[in-house]
């Protein structure tokens, strides 16, 4: 049986491994009993195990008992989920919600929300086809924006010398951007740095963005995870809405509800009025339909069950606080260990950074050595997922990092 | 607080989806005898959504397992991917055994098609046009165009015979530029229900081979067409045997009743394992900026069923039952249309295959059925046979008969 004479795919080059998900692939292949995977942002409990939230287990049990069917959802997803997701992010009393002028659709977690948002902007945003992202940002933001027809530019964000926020640089770049530019903002727990603006800094940013009539594009993947308080973490989003910005918001339930693989998220647009919301809604459907027709039901049902039940909702609030608190305690412990080991450099940022990730400041060469010599895996930008650390491995980790910085690995 | 910007003022109102919009309109209708034969979702004899028992059992098994909710790899759940590809290609497919088929989990059939067109638009060096049959599933067109490629058509449906225009189909495929991308519905063509015979598939295989065309199969109804999963996969397996490096979009929405779980696969037959690895690395780059990784639940359900000899057998019986009920409705509808002395030839209702039937009703007749009889279908006259049952088929046949005779009007318009 003859095959094609010359394969259509003879010239397809080998693609590079994904900078984040490729780390897990390498980790899996490593036989060492001491190996640690600090690559992907997935929460681990104190024993280093994946964690399914008790409220999620309860909700799933209810669903199984109810024997729900597997019918198609509408293109924009489960209505009860959308309503509750919007209330969680914006607050029940938010004006756009009360006035029925928030266009919202369920999405394939945060990435899916971002992709729909970028596609919508690429098609309909009248002022510009350029999106400004912070330096650095989550890697996947860039191909996702480009594939949607947007040009990607950067604004200063991370200050290597202070290992903190370059607020003056950030303001200057946002101010310098042409009027009506799309500005992407991480709502809380910036990925990868863990460095967030303070509340008064957010207020300043709101003013500048208002003056320049920029479009705020919020990515909120960690509501509840940053401080342990869902209201506090939503401050920037809610403040901007109060101040009259017509923003868009991408929401993920991967981390705060531990629903990673179920792929649950939402994307929403603050519109001028109900009529505009209907128009935006109709165009969102047209974007989504050729991508995947309609979203998956299972995760949305779980979220809807939890957010819609007072007891489960309160259970969840304490569960997400517990996760955030364990991460904060790991930050404290890592800082203490690094200082004890006389590790050269300043390490206070480990404690001050927010959320799941920490930007260690390790160089790519040090990262490579840690993988090679100590079976410790992280992304090459030196980002670590604090959730991967626990009492059992934190001493080994701190020692290895200390050695790497001293050049002793 | 008033807005200082006015970004979305010029966003136009988009038209409702021609298929999903039908269900939206149906939902709003208050009439007690309303019928929805719009969306291709199976309904049982009582018009209710049908959850397969093998699926319910799998749900229980999963629930007992208490597995976690971690991210799947970009290309999906490994067990699921293996079992799904064995179902499509056959366990003893040489290409599969040689490890040279690149398979990824996808967001059901639509998602698989979108990965296909995304990959092709990035890496295919042949003509940037995808040939679709006339007519085809409406969503095929934007799935192609959204990635910047062009749509062309090949003749398919013959209005006069209400059958396959095979000569026209062959002519158009032959006339296409060498190396064109040809999309073929593997079985139970949507919307016509008209499939090539096995001999016709063999001819098509030769023609596409001679023109070095790249074949993309859309298989959304394996098991649903004839009730036999092997028979329904004939075209796919034959083309692979004959050396075509096909692309395949596979859906479990209908045959496992897992519509909303969004579970399917995208696969490509490659020259060898090395090429497969290269291609898979690039497929990941199509998927990652779309949605990072696929949803867990549906994949676990399908893997549980396909991986258990007992559940697998049970499922085969269930899919046959669904297919048989549809075939029975076809017979019944034909008999009723003849009984009501409906003008025209109606044999096609019986000979068409799968969930859909292309009735031949005009858009005006479709509108009349909606407005005056509360019967909902897509404007191309396509009906989902699964929406019919003993409880509503008489009323349906009666209404269609009246529509054809031009007797459907509201009293006020007389």
Automatic annotation (TrEMBL), chain A:
GO cellular component: mitochondrion
GO biological process, any: L-aspartate catabolic process
ATP-binding as UniProt keyword: no
Needed cofactors: pyridoxal 5'-phosphate
EC number: 2.6.1.1
Extra facts: In eukaryotes there are cytoplasmic, mitochondrial and chloroplastic isozymes.
Name this polypeptide is given: Aspartate aminotransferase
Originating species: Kockovaella imperatae
TrEMBL record, chain B:
PROSITE patterns: AA_TRANSFER_CLASS_1 (PS00105)
Lipid biosynthesis as UniProt keyword: no
Record key words, sorted: Aminotransferase, Pyridoxal phosphate, Transferase
UniProt KW Transferase keyword: yes
EC top class named in words: transferase
GO biological process terms on file: L-aspartate catabolic process
Family under the similarity heading: Belongs to the class-I pyridoxal-phosphate-dependent aminotransferase family.
PANTHER family, sorted: ASPARTATE AMINOTRANSFERASE, ASPARTATE AMINOTRANSFERASE, MITOCHONDRIAL
Name of the molecule in the record: Aspartate aminotransferase
The organism of origin for this protein: Kockovaella imperatae
